[in-house]
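Intended use. Records like the one below are meant for learning the mapping from a protein sequence to its folded structure. Do not use them to infer anything beyond what is encoded.
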Amino acid sequence: MTESPDTRPSLLLRLAEPVDQVAWEDFVQIYEPVVVRMAMRRGLQAADAHDLCQEVMTRVARSIANWNPDRERGSFRSWLATVTRNLVVDHLRKEQRRPSLPGELALADINAPTEIALFEQEEERQIFCWAGERARQSFTDTTWQAFWMTCVENHTPQTVAEQLELSIGAVYIARSRVLAKIKELVQQMEGTSVNLKHLGGTSREN
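Structure written out for the chain above:
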C-alpha cells in the first residue's frame, strides 16, 4: 500500500471552478462529516458543530481560488484541520465566558499537531465511505457482501463463502473487484493512489 496523499489536487483544482457543482458536492460529502465529528469530539453540541462546519466551508469557498498546492507552504489538509481547530477553540473560549458554565473547558490539549493527525484519520475513514457508497452501485448485493464481510468485518473467506453459498475463489474475486473499484474512484478524485490500510481484510489473507 502507498501512503495517503496530503491533499487532493484534482478535487482542489475543480473546486476553483465555480461551475463545477459536482466537485463541491463531493467536497462537502467528504469533509462535512469530518469537520462535524472533529468539533463534537471536543464537546460541541451537534447544532454548534454544524454551524462551525458552515463557517469552515465558507472559508474554503473564499480561499480556494487562490490556493497553490505547494508542499513548502503546507498541505491543504493541514490548513483545513487548522481552520477547524481554531474555530473550535474560539467557540470554547466564548463558552468559557458564560457565567452559567461551571469550571473551565480544557483548551490546552487542542494542539495543532494532534488535531491534524486526528483530522487525517477521520478524513481517511470518510474517503472510504464516500468511495464505497459509489462503488456499491456497480455490484450485486452478493458481491458487495463478500467484500464487506471479508474486508470490513474481517470474516474469513471460507466463512463468507459458506454464508453466501459461493466458492472461496468467488469470494476473493468479489473482494478484489470491489477494492479495485474503490481505488479507482479515489484515484479519479485525487489524481493519485489511495491508502486502504485501515481495512483489516485487505492487508492479510484470512
